[in-house]
Amino acid sequence: MKSKGLTTRTKLAHAGRSAKKSPGTVNLPVARASTVLFESLADLDDIQKRFDADEVVPTYGIANMPLRAAFEELMVEIEGGYRAVTLPSGLAANAVALLAALKTGDHVLMVDSVYGPARRVCDRTLKRYGIETTYYDPLIGAGIERLMKPNTKCVYLESPGSHTFEVQDFPAIAKVAHAHGAAVIHDNTWATGLFFKSFEHGADLVVQAATKYPGGHSDVLIGAVVANEKYWPSLRDVARDLGQNASPDDIFLALRGMRTMEVRLRTHQASGIEIATKLASHPKVKRVLHPALPSDPGHVLWKRDFTGAAGLFAIELVDTPREKVAAFVESLELFGLGFSWGGFESLVMPSNLRSIRTATPWKGGPLVRLQIGLEDPADLIADLERGLEKLG
Ligand SMILES: *Cc1c(COP(=O)(O)O)cnc(C)c1O
Fold first, then answer.
1. Beta pairing class for 336-337 and 347-351
2. In this predicted model, what pLDDT tens digit does every residue of 168-197 receive, in sequence order?
3. Do the beta carbons of residue 305 and residue 274 sit within 8 Å?
């Protein structure tokens, strides 16, 4: 597809549909395959040569099958960058991005507000392979300079953090990282490439937990990492060497979800802001953590760097015992209690930050994260107001 000059919204409808194997349908079929058959040995040799030269040609079920290639093409159209790999989950994408940037003896600077399981990748597996991690304050900005060591080879950002929603000064941090020759990884799951262009702000590798907004229906686990040209060879090789793949059915669902992602995100955004604004004046709510609210400490940076907001934010409650928080979340009728987010339906999740953060310990009251789905926001507000009464 000739995508020059088209907006991301238009690309979502058209990119990734040009694969030669399409039988003429709008969407590519789900092809379940391990073996790809060749007409002749000359054909096989030719395809192998093109594969080795990094052409997108299918050689085996794990490599460049049309659906997977289409998903990766569309991911690059949305996020920017050079090429993408498909992973079986967002967490696998977090881990593979780190492994693509680091080797034994290196040091990584990891944002303290990062998605929890990514901490375990650092504290357990990377540590075992001789890679050291330092957690940093998400609000550190250019001050990250003082944490850089001669062996710092990666600075990892997640902006805004998906529990506490601090907006990072991305360009300032990326500038310092690059001056020291370190790779910049961004987990862009919250904003997606629709609302934040990571590569334009200095990212080298971008993670997308496509389980969330790209999937959009709480029925698929999938991830992607997009690299710029510099980091593409090491990303491609580590994903390939670890045998990373996703099922064609899951790729199909994610690709299908992405076609409507822009429309869904606009509703998630509008309803999220409406509900966050309403909750900000509720007597049981101490603070709303949502960077699109002008009162939020991250609002200025969000306005400078982002073009929109997701439907995921948090409320800090006035000090309340856990049993009361339980009574609140369990009384909600339209908000399911469960992990993950980005689907069409609303979810609620109390965060347990006291046991997680190390560089910047959480000193506030109980935090409850809300994923605002596609329901009518008036119904969601009524449900939340009824639930908040349970706090006494
Ligand atoms: C959910 C999430 C992940 C992990 O995605 P899974 O597909 O659930 O493994 C990674 N990063 C962020 C910010 C997330 O919210």
1. parallel
2. 999 999 999 999 999 999 999 999 999 999
3. no
Q: Rounded distance, CA 363 to CA 244, Å? A: 39
Are the C-beta atoms of 257 and 215 separated by less than 8 Å?
yes
Cα(296) to centroid(ligand 1), Å: 24
Question: What ligand 1 atom has the least distance to the C-alpha of 222?
Answer: 7
Phi, psi of 195 (to 5 degrees): -115, -10
Residue 80: both structure tokens together: 């920017």
Rounded distance from Cα 4 to ligand 1 centre (Å):
31
Exposed e or buried b per residue across 185-212, where buried means at least 16 C-beta atoms within 10 angstroms of its C-beta: bbbbbbbbbbbbbbbebbbbbbbbbbbb
pLDDT (0 to 100) of residue 1:
52
Could you report the per-residue pLDDT of 78-134, keeping only the tens digit for each? 999 999 999 999 999 999 999 999 999 999 999 999 999 999 999 999 999 999 999
Is the predicted pLDDT of residue 21 greater than 60, yes or no?
Answer: no
Cα-Cα-Cα-Cα dihedral sign, residues 16, 22, 27, 32: negative
Q: All domains of the chain, ordered by start, with CATH?
A: 81-252 (3.40.640.10), 261-391 (3.90.1150.10)
